[in-house]
Design brief:
single chain, about 220 residues, mainly beta, ten-stranded antiparallel beta sheet, 4 helices, globular, DNA-binding
Length: about 220
Amino acid sequence: MAAEPVRPYAREDRPGSAVKKLGRSFYARPAIELAPDLIGKILVHRIGRKEYRARIVETEAYIGQHDLACHASKGRTNRTEVMFGRPGHAYVYFIYGMYDMLNVVASDVDDAQAVLIRAAEPLNGWNVDLSGPGKLARAMHITRRANNGVDLTGKKLFFIDAGAPRPKISRSKRVGVDYAGRWKHALLRFFDAGSPFVSRIRPMSGKRQGEEATR
DNA sequence: GCGTCGATGGCA
DNA sequence: GCCATCGACGCG
């Protein structure tokens, strides 16, 4: 296991820096817009003196109660409550008995949309595999217990825009949602077309998933 | 390289 | 009884 990174300095905290923390308005729009715009942004998690930092390369949009792949399609429950709340908060859930998943609440109050963070490129010389939502959350120490419902405009867990140009983005079907009826076909997974840090295309069926370039 | 399967626990 | 996963294992 590679040594964990210690916070060097934080440009986004300096007055006048071009690097800026994403604010509420960035998140307050449909997940289908937010998901591709989060590609290339940097996720930061601070715990004590440690800082975990990674560049997002893959996301999925879950677009509301009518989307059968979206947890909110089950209605408002203790689990899904934060998705019905304000945008710009973390929806972290626990699944398969061992994995936590980080999602970003999008849209607006009562419109339960979210973006799943699926893969990222570790930064600051951090040598770790973040290609998959379970691995990403585990390596960055993001858990349902500690982080579900936290405000992403706060000081502990947030995204920043480092001013990098928008990468070429491809899209495909979402991973692992075969139960979702016609929604399983929707092209709501977005990824940096040139990044080697994207999670592997899901096995099964021998065929490549339909992928098409955008933008 | 590709398919199959078990681990493991919260949730409806 | 599912499940927005992962990694180990068997095959060839």
